[in-house]
Amino acid sequence: MAAEATVMHLLKSGDHVISGDDIYGGTHRLFQNVMQDFGLEFTFLRMDGREAIERAIKPNTKMLWLETPSNPLLNIVDLEMAADVAKKHNLMTVIDNTFATPYFLRPIEYGIDLVVHSTTKYLNGHCDVVGGAVVTTTDELTEKVQFLLNSMGTCASPFDCWLVIRGIETLPVRMNRHEENASAVANFLVGHPSVNRVFYPGLKSHPGHEIAKRQMRGFGGMVSFESKGGMEAVGRFIRRIKLFAPAESLGGTASLAEHPATMSHAAMPKEHREQVGITDGIIRLSVGLENIDDLIDDLRHALEPG
Ligand SMILES: *Cc1c(COP(=O)(O)O)cnc(C)c1O
User: Does residue 121 have its Cβ closer than 6 Å to ligand 1?
Assistant: First the structure.
């Protein structure tokens, strides 16, 4: 969040930002409940088409804020398209690349100006650091971001940086295993009688599959699904899981399960949540590095009806 807050300070009161509508709940809260009070204006929309973005552009629009795959629905934004629209209209593009990591997605190659990461997640990978990073593409942006880091004190401690650098050493190995396990979990959930829908960009049925296949080197370790039976089924699932820990956060070696409507996205107003499709039945899994048979056994047991 410090990385994101820093980037938002590149803007001035009166500027307008177009943001994806199904972004991380904390990012939505930063925009809606903090930055808006400083005079920034926001439009939230599904970034799935050039026309929708262009229609939202106003004379004071300065920034396009993207997240792909998004949290928790794992929607995919076509970065080449988004960067092209932004260049035509002179907008700064920022992407939150926390879910994909630089191992699976290299946004700067598609023309994105700034990349932010929660290093708390996959980059560190062991759930023992809270931190963030801003990746810049020009000397001018580097200078501005460094000035803000120094002025606002939004920088990470040396020890936390050391832990993240140590974590990055195993990033490729971890990401490959996260993806292998997530893909098996997604395929197990598809067609399970207690599951309505599965959200994983690696599934052919995912609306963003073709774009993801083109722009990413892998589909990542996050899987969301909508359980049948609403809140009651969610409660049962969360009480029953043993190997998946019921917790927010993601991207660590251990598998986690969480309920966006009451946890990661509780700060998002209910109407906004429903409008973007984060229903009460949705459960988000951060699939860890454990033995895949154990993970699937855990899910099978937790999803049994009654
Ligand atoms: C967790 C998360 C953040 C916020 O990161 P913190 O490390 O908790 O400050 C931002 N974006 C995404 C996509 C996240 O998952």
Answer: yes
Tokens of 52: 């929708």
pLDDT per residue over 80-130, tens digit each? 999 999 999 999 999 999 999 999 999 999 999 999 999 999 999 999 999
Partnered with residue 269 across adjacent β-strands are none
What are the residue ranges spanned by the domains of the chain?
2-168, 171-302
Cα–Cα distances in Å, from 34 out to 26, 117, 219?
11, 20, 32
Phi then psi dihedrals of residue 193, to 5 deg? -60, -20
**CATH number for the domain running over 2-168:** 3.40.640.10
Q: Which fold has domain 171-302?
A: Aspartate Aminotransferase, domain 1 (3.90.1150)
* pTM beyond 0.90, yes or no: yes
Kindly report, residue by residue over 235-279, the tens digit of the pLDDT. Answer: 999 999 999 999 999 999 999 999 999 998 888 888 888 888 899
CB-ligand 1 contact for 68 (6 Å cutoff): no
From the CA of 193, how far away is ligand 1's center (Å)? 32
Verify whether ligand 1 is closer than 6 Å to residue 26 (CB atom).
yes
Residue 249: both structure tokens together = 């956060």
Joined together, the tokens standing for residue 251 give 């991207």
Pocket test for ligand 1, best of 65, 74, 77, 120 (most atoms within 8 A of CB): 120
